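Lab notebook, bench 4. The sequencing result for the construct came back, and we need a structural model before the next group meeting so we can plan mutations. Quick request posted to the team channel:

Model the 3D structure of this chain.
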Amino acid sequence: MGAKLRVYKRRIRSVTATKKITKAMEMIAASRVVKAQRQVAASTPYASELTRAVTAVATGSNTQHPLTTEAEQPSRAAVLLITSDRGLAGGYSSNVIKAAEQLTERLKAEGKEVDAYIVGRKGVSYYSFRERKVVESWTGFTDNPTYADAKAIAAPLIGAVQQDTAEGGVDELHIVTTEFISMMTQTAIDDRLLPLSLDKTLAESEETAKGEILPLFDFEPSAEDVLDALLPRYVESRIYNALLQAAASKHAATRRAMKSATDNAEDLIKSLSRLANAARQAEITQEISEIVGGASALADATAGSDK
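Done. Here's the predicted structure in token form:
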């Protein structure tokens, strides 16, 4: 029985050590998610206004630009998937990968080939394990992305859109990421970045109706030059905002997962403590029984010798 008590005590020490680790990780994630929320709030207005400006130029001119013009028969699409470099975040990465799989199936059903661009080691590992082709991948910054990271990702994507499909280019650019809604809710979403959907962006705000935005902008030197300058910034800002949304979502998911792990560790410690107490009580009871039995045997032996 003593050996059983030692096993329980050893498991309690092990679970207690794990609980300290998960509690520390929960606190770290909680502090990081606050910073990520602030970055999302700071970047969203810029991305929104830049989208309005690009929409204004595209709708206020007759310029045919490759980043705003729909292909007559689109045959190839690029999908940018944003996952995490680290685990311990519940179903965060698996949910966004599942959304990317659904988007890929939908695009293939439309007769389009899909080029995969991956951010984060989890997505890279998923595609590598299944021996799927990845055009380009980026890792090492998903917890704290910068605008420079967004520019590095945007450059080959913009180049692919500008290139002819016969030479390896694409007709569409889609992004799959996780939208941060609240500390408890993060949703995997997919969105088409290019060609810019003018009807969609105009419908998102009543203030961006065609008749209202045209007087607000003058094209200098020309609408095409303005689009050449604005559209790369548009893609970079949207990717940067998506990276920040994904980082905030990942930290929130980690915090939630670590809190659940900490609570489970506490419950396991309580359960093991009860089992250890029961084992100790059984051991004490057995020792008392052995002492009483020994004393009774000694008394019987002494009584027999007196006779």
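The longest helix spans residues 223-306.
Will bring this to the meeting.
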